[in-house]
């Protein structure tokens, strides 16, 4: 299981998600879906900025583990950035994708993205770089930010 979670945890990395968000947002923008493009890229960018600000505010040290499976990240533990970013990206993509796909396909997209985000959170605890509360807080932050951004975009939709 070690290798599985070492791979899965990369699905929450900014090094993976930001290039992916740029590509998806670009495609959405070119197809005339500016609101969805802003939701996908802004959802990830906002969640990443918020979580890193909160890490500095709370300054919670990472778990003290004698034998690590991966290199311990140098920043603080609370909340989990990988989880917040994965949840925000997955939720934003799921909302954008479900606007124009049939219900069974939309359910498949939602399920796949949410399971992937959940696995990222589980991987952070499994790899012992976060406490469970870090992951739960990261997930809540990701969901709250994307829902707030989606609401703001709906209010300003005619302008995008």
Helix proportion: over 70%
Termini separation: 45 Å
Instruction: Write down the secondary-structure element order.
Output: HHHHHH
Structural classification: mainly alpha
Report the sheet with the most strands, covering strand number, pairing sense and barrel closure. Answer: none
Care to count the β-strands?
A: 0
Give average pLDDT, whole number: 92
Principal-axis shape: globular
Return Rg in Å: 16 Å
Low-confidence stretches: none
Number of helices: 6
- β-sheet strand percentage: under 5%
Describe the protein in words.
- The protein is mainly α and 160 residues long.
- Helices cover 72% and strands 0% of the residues.
- The protein has six helices and no strands.
- The protein has helices spanning 2-8, 14-30, 34-58, 81-98, 103-126, 132-155.
- Helix 3 (34-58) runs antiparallel to helix 6 (132-155) and helix 4 packs parallel to helix 6.
What is the topology?
Blueprint: H1 2-8, H2 14-30, H3 34-58, H4 81-98, H5 103-126, H6 132-155
Helix pairs in contact: 1-5, 2-3, 3-4, 3-6, 4-5, 4-6, 5-6
Name some characteristics of this structure:
mainly alpha, 160 residues
């Amino acid at each position: 299981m070690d290798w599985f979670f070492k791979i899965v945890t990369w699905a929450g990395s900014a090094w993976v998600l930001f290039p992916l968000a740029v590509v998806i947002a670009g495609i959405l923008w070119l197809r005339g879906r500016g609101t969805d493009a802003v939701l996908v890229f802004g959802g990830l960018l906002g969640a990443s900025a918020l979580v890193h600000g909160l890490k500095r505010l709370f300054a919670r040290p990472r778990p003290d583990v004698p034998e690590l499976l991966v290199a311990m990240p140098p920043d603080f533990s609370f909340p989990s950035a990988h989880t917040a970013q994965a949840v925000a990206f997955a939720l934003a993509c799921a909302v954008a994708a479900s606007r124009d796909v049939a219900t069974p396909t939309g359910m498949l997209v939602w399920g796949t993205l949410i399971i992937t985000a959940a696995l990222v959170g589980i991987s952070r605890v499994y790899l012992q770089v976060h406490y469970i509360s870090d992951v739960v807080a990261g997930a809540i932050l990701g969901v709250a930010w994307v829902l707030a951004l989606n609401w703001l975009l709906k209010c300003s939709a005619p302008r995008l």
